[in-house]
Amino acid sequence: MKNPKDQDTKRAFTRRSLLLGAGQLGLVGALGARLYYLQVVEADRYRTLSEENQFNLELLPPTRGLILDRHGILVASNEDNFRVDLVPEQTSDVRGTINALRQVVHVDDWDVKRVLKEISRKRSFVPVTVVENLTREDISRVAVNAPYLPGIRIEEGRSRVYPYGSRAVNITGYVAAVSDTELTGDPVLELPDFRIGKSGIEKLYDKEMRGSAGRRQVEVNALGRIIRKLPGDEGQPGKNVHLTLDMNLQTFAHERLERGSSERVPVADIRVQEALARSGVPKRYLENDDGTVFLDKGGNIVQGESGAAIVMDVHTGEILTIASTPGFDPNNFNKGLSARDWENLLSNPRHPLTNKAIAGTYPPGSTFKMIVALAALEAGVIGPETEVYCNGHTDLGNARFHCWKRWGHGKMDVMDALEQSCDVYFYEAAKRVGIDRISEMARRFGLGETLEIELPGERNGLIPTREWKLAVRGERWQKGETLITGIGQGFVLVTPLQLAVMTARLVNGGYAVKPSLIQRQASDAPVPKMNVSRGNLAYVLEGMRRVVNGAHGSARSAKIPESGFQVGGKTGTAQVRRITKAERATGVIQNEDLPWRERDHGLFVGYAPADAPRYAVAVVLEHGGGSKYAVPIARDILARAMTADGFEASEAEPVEILPQGQPDTDQG
Amino acid sequence: MATGMQSNSLNPPELTLGIKLQQINWGLILLLTLIASVGFAMLYSAANGSWTPWAMRQAIRFGVGLVITLGIALVDLRFLMRWAYAFYFLSLGLLGVVEIAGEIGMGAQRWIDLGVFRLQPSELMKLALVLALARYFHRQTFEEVGRIRSLFVPLVLVFAPAILVLRQPDLGTAGMIILGGGAIFFLAGVRIWKFVTVLVLGLSAIPIGWQFLHNYQKNRILTFLNPENDPLGAGYHILQSKIALGSGGLFGKGFLQGSQSHLNFLPEKQTDFIFTMLAEELGLAGALFLLLLYVLALGYGFAIALRCSSQFGRLLALGTTTTLFLYMFINIAMVMGLIPVVGVPLPLISYGGTAMLTAMIGFGLIINCYVHRDIEIGRQGFEDED
Predict the structure, then answer these.
(1) What is the pLDDT of residues A15-50, one digit of tens each?
(2) What is the pTM assigned to this prediction?
(3) Distance (Å) from the C-alpha of residue B134 to the closest C-alpha of chain A?
(4) Which own/partner pairs from B16-22 qualify as long-range (CB within 8 Å, at least 24 positions apart)?
């Protein structure tokens, strides 16, 4: 019935439809294989890519640890810092919103321009900061007006605050924005407003105080808009640092040191106005950051002293005060210091950026004589009754070594020599004991090497030896140099901290205390003894007591009347320039008449109470004009330390917090 | 006319409506509903768990489409054959009008609004071409098909719409028209060596053709070959699609949980890239399940074609099946980065009226062939004239 030709087409169709079906199945199989490849073989790779698409890691900056003094007073803390952001997509009229905001808080024209420029460059949901560092009052005004400020968002940040400003900057250091070289790969460092410790405790304990950043995953869509915030790691706030400092004493010492022998007078005072008019120098160059100036006894405006002062517990090594002047305000670095201000800090001849207490090195002058005396006594080359006749000079070969007292002191034993700081006695003692034993004794007392105090930038100073001179200078040690070393001049260089530690080790019964600035939880291992004869130490201490209390003492002005305790100590004057023969003949020019850079350094090391020493003090006045200017400063600081000690004993007395900018009244 | 065939018990002269309804392949209808439902679920997910704006409208369209499917299934197959050329020229005319209007009018639409559907003549053309070719080859004997001159008319039938579509330029649709036409040539018995010759000539023409391509066209092809080279530009879509697919893994991220889709990394997730979204949320398991449903639905097409008594029915059923296969294959291969990005929807699943209408008419034609599987049709398309 059927057309056989139709049978041909049907057969061809059947055959070919099966071929086509097989082909289509093959293609479907290819799809399946491709699916398997993408979803099974390559799944991990694509899953990672998908998650990278989906999630952005958001870092939550940790709260930086606080710095507190021994009484828990804040030395560095964090302050809420308010800023106002604008989210362009949330307002129909960006300019209108900014104008409305300007009715409420001050916004610079410059800021408005910057904001408009940023908005044009960024995606419309990215917030743009309009104003920063707003007060709570400003912020509450913005918050109240929020309904009229579409797109405005109040954001809270944190900024570092140093309540004591320049008075503790050599300890706290400061924080500032992270520079490229400081990037370690820790992503928190790359946050735009993250701050890192740049000096002082902030630098040394940066890792500990930084804490660890919290991490939060933020789900974003293809445009980068945040869809969802996922719970994450909250991070760890930084650890607090508890200092051994007594901020009351620190503040007092800093201000006392800076004032020197001048008087701190408010700018408004009539005498200041007169002095300003006379000097013709603009006020801003002379004014201190607390609105005062220093007036000397002649009524002239002078700069604050440059120097260092340290108070140390002689038994524990705890540092109660470590002042370095002039300072600078670390708060300025947080907001961003102008290039000009930074340049001024760098070029200031009084080096405010240097922590002179640990990084300033000075010839110790006569404060070194205790070391020489002890070295000689311990070596047995002198005894307590050994007497040397001082006629004003010693000759060695054809060189003549002068005593500071031109006509000589006459007969001196070791205690007389310390009391009156007789140079001829110590030339003799040094000659007898030799440089090797002097250097050895100096090192035992902490000179010539770092003391590992918890501050960056500590320097070694220099205690010369024969080997040192041969290695560094390529010359043999000269005997004359031993004599010069005997009075703390020549090559010897020490830091104020080393002087304080030396004094503490002298007066605490011969224990090698180490200075510490950080409060220790448990008491450390017992302080090692130094194996110095107690008897010999007693002779030296008696000499030091007589420096202040003796009839001929060189620091009789260090006495604290009616205090019920005695002060001991030793003066030192370090020559900065050589005194020429011509000058010696015509009479030495008064230090006060020299330019500042050429004046002598003034030093004093002391302790109190003399019968049961508790605190050691060291004061160095850079180009201060001699020890007589350092003595009253040291006395006032010691008196204050002893009074504070009384406070400490009675707990009823509240600890006063000194806000920055209000100088304590000087009772010295 | 002779009536011998009509008296044959296997070929009742007229099928009553009741019988036709019984003959309708309800299993296939169920399969289609299942596939479309997968689509509703994915559109529900694409809208972040909402029936609006897509899933509900798509469901309504499917309902309307089902009526059209059944309507077409019940039309007499011989009627379809008689009107095959008319459909073809109507479609070609519409295509020409829309193409010309699109060329001269500013922003003129390439579709005709039918209320529920927006009809693109180029979509209609794919089916009309199958009808026309099926009719042409129906009356050719195997020997006649073997002659070269008998290929002239069908080649014109294929290339007239293909060239019109190419002018848009819509490479994807043109390709589908040519491939769909080619499949019918093949099924009708055009000799294999002719296909091989065309293929060899085509391949050797590629280096020459490359010279005539515009730079942007070259770039598009290069980007397809290596999308990672241009991750933010033209390669972005396909790269994101592959990330979405791959990150789905074996069992997917879960319904409504596709991060790539829901965070808009995936483009066109409700239309051309809906398969990607399914594979991201339901994984390899879900994707293979959908492929299986398609294979079953298309398998019906093959089975029906093989059961047809008439060459017209066979060619119509399998030509339509192949066209629908091409839709599915091109779409899925595209989202997996196997072929360049061309705008071809996934039948029954992608959101869109024309795509749904084309698929539903197509399956209507296939079911029609089943309903009328035993009708013998003469070489001229009227009663048998043997």
Answers:
(1) 999 999 999 999 999 999 999 999 999 888 888 888
(2) 0.64
(3) 12
(4) B17/B74, B20/B73, B20/B74, B20/B371, B21/B74
